[in-house]
Design brief:
By secondary structure, the protein is an alpha/beta fold. It has helices spanning about 1-10, 30-35, 50-65, 80-95, 125-130, 155, 160-165, 185, 200-205, 210-220, 220-230, 295-310, 325-335, 350-370, 380-385, 405-415; strands spanning about 40-45, 70-75, 105, 110-115, 120-125, 140, 170-175, 195, 255-265, 270-280, 285-295, 315-320, 345, 375, 390, 395-400.
């Protein structure tokens, strides 16, 4: 492995410093040796110091150079975990000439080289999981697994089943501390070899990391530091919408009823999600989620309009579309093909929007605690109850991207007052 690393360091000398691999840190040879020993691996380590991205990227490059297919699964292809994909692609670009390789497939979701090696990017959302039939790989990497629901694992494990049976396959799970029903926490009890490298273990081998850990502990909340540097399981107190989210909220008597429809528009492998909310003041019940995969926004808009028209026209309604990225064009298409009684364009990506998101989350939390916001569909209720968040010392919320949650942000913007107030 030292030969490959030396070649890689020499080949990537002209890359930006952040993308160039360095020499082994004291604990990394041991971890990489474990990669070569165990076919079922978990690397749970503190952020930045352990070098999870470096180690996983180096392993992926080795597999690709040997002519094997590699699949990287991420909670969302919008997230910062795309850093791993970027590193693998940049490193392979630097090595292609030395190994006489060319790319014969090169798109946003898959790159394949002339030796048969390939890299696929997959998302752990439901639509992406439904579309992986027929794919195979030798190395399956689940990145940011502390954000991935454990039920998604059954959809992706078959990708590597043939390689595992023939003795050259591997599953590598990366992450920090997660909720109890995430991939990393569930698989720790399922016979996987675990390399656990928290702040204490790293600093014990290299005391130079102590000032960095001290600074992070000072800047983060206790919950944030426990999760990201001690790699402890997420406590219930940091849940985003709270585990007690109801399946039904009772308005307690006759009240004015309004139907609201919130749309979060997907990109590439992310889904376009419609949330249908029946508001009977002072409560709101999310009664349906409907999802579309891909980027054929014309068909999606037509199907969405027809679904609303066929199922909900007996009540007044309003439709909100988050217009970040492709959402603006989606809203234009929707406005042309069906004259909705109310179409609201919701912007949440600018700075004021980010502040509004924080307020919306706070109101959603309060409503969930009071029992005035409920989510009927079981799958989404479990998904929302599982999400965790962090609060910076400045009071800013830091949350993972989640399509289902995004629809609730859009819904919240449609209401003239906070739900349940």
């Amino acid at each position: 492995m030292e030969v490959i690393l030396r070649l890689l360091i020499a080949a990537t000398v002209n890359l930006p410093e952040a993308d160039r691999p360095g020499w082994w840190r004291p604990w990394q040879p041991r971890i990489f040796e474990a990669f070569l020993t165990y076919s079922l691996m978990i690397l749970q380590g503190c952020r930045q110091a352990v070098g999870k991205t470096f180690l996983a990227g180096l392993l992926a490059v080795v597999f690709i150079l040997l002519g094997y297919r590699v699949c990287v699964v991420l909670p969302s292809l919008r997230q910062g975990s795309r850093i791993l994909l970027r590193r693998i692609l940049l490193w392979m670009l630097c090595l292609e000439k030395s190994f006489g390789l060319k790319r014969r497939v090169n798109n946003a979701l898959e790159v394949e080289w002339t030796n048969g090696g390939a890299l696929m990017a997959l998302s752990s959302n439901e639509a992406a999981m439904a579309g992986v039939q027929g794919y195979t790989c030798a190395l399956l990497i689940i990145d940011e697994s502390h954000e991935a629901p454990d039920e998604m694992f059954a959809s992706y494990a078959p990708l590597v089943a043939i390689a595992m049976k023939e003795g050259y396959g591997m599953i590598l799970i990366l992450g920090v501390g997660g909720a109890e029903d995430t991939v990393i926490e569930r698989k720790k009890a399922a016979g996987y070899h675990v390399e656990f490298w928290d702040d204490k273990r790293v600093a014990g081998m290299d005391p130079d990391w102590l000032p960095y850990f001290t600074q992070q502990e000072r800047e983060l909340t206790p919950e944030g530091y426990d999760k990201n540097f001690r790699c402890l399981p997420v406590r219930a107190g940091t849940r985003l919408v709270f585990p007690q989210l109801l399946s039904f909220a009772d308005p307690g008597g006759p009240s004015r009823t309004e139907m609201l429809f919130a749309v979060d528009v997907g990109k590439v492998v992310d889904e376009t999600v419609l949330a249908v909310v029946r508001v009977q003041y002072p409560v709101a019940n999310v009664i349906e989620f409907r999802r579309w995969h891909g980027t054929n926004y014309v068909d999606q808009a037509q199907e969405l309009a027809a679904h609303i028209d066929d199922n909900y026209t007996y009540l007044p309604y309003n439709v909100g579309v988050e217009v970040n990225g492709p959402g603006e064009g989606f809203a234009d298409i929707l406005a042309k093909i069906y004259p909705f009684s109310g179409l609201t364009r919701v912007k949440t990506s600018d700075t004021p929007g980010s502040r509004r998101k924080t307020l919306w989350i706070q109101e959603l939390q309060k409503a969930a605690q009071r029992g005035t916001l409920a989510v009927g569909p079981e799958k989404e209720r479990r998904e929302l109850s599982r999400l965790s968040f962090e609060i910076t010392p400045e009071g800013r919320y830091v949350w993972p991207h989640n399509d289902t949650l995004s629809t609730l942000w859009v819904f919240q913007s449609l209401t003239q007052h906070a739900v349940g107030v």
